[in-house]
């Protein structure tokens, strides 16, 4: 939905749409970044074929998801999804940081 369409639907609808997009972005980010912990550990200690294959699959799935969101929603929703991705990235980095 475009910005004008979201705002004409009312502020509560706009906030709900952006909130849902943030949650979707956080979920996509968790799905994308959590396996990265496993991939890094595998790359550091063994053969690289499986981790690199998983990395390519993660990248393609995220690209397809973002392309679908871009085609069906407006820039505001896509931006909210991107912010959700960044929030998930920060959480996974904090989770995987050595103590």
Secondary structure elements and pairings:
Elements: H1 3-8, H2 11-45, H3 49-72, H4 75-96
Describe this structure in words.
By secondary structure, this protein is mostly helical. It has one domain (15-96). The protein is built from four helices and no strands. The radius of gyration is 16 Å and the shape is elongated. The termini are far apart. The model has no long low-confidence stretch (mean pLDDT 86).
Shape: elongated
| SSE pattern | HHHH
* Number of contiguous helices: 4
Strand count, sense and barrel status of the largest sheet are:
none
| Overall number of strands | 0
Helix content: over 70%
Distance between the termini: 43 Å
Uncertain residue ranges: none
- Total number of distinct structural domains: 1
Secondary-structure-based class equals mainly alpha
What is the beta-strand fraction? under 5%
Any idea what the radius of gyration is? 16 Å
Please tell me the overall pLDDT.
86
Any descriptors?
99 residues; mainly alpha; 88% helix
Brief synopsis:
With 99 residues, the chain is an all-alpha fold.
């Amino acid at each position: 939905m475009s910005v004008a369409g979201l705002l004409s639907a009312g502020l509560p609808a706009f906030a709900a749409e952006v909130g849902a997009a943030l949650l979707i972005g956080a979920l996509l980010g968790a799905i994308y970044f959590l396996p990265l912990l496993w991939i890094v550990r595998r790359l550091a200690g063994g053969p690289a074929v499986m981790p690199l294959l998983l990395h390519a699959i993660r990248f393609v799935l995220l690209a397809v998801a973002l392309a679908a969101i871009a085609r069906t929603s407006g820039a505001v929703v896509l931006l909210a999804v991107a912010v959700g991705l960044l929030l998930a990235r920060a959480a996974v980095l904090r989770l995987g940081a050595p103590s």
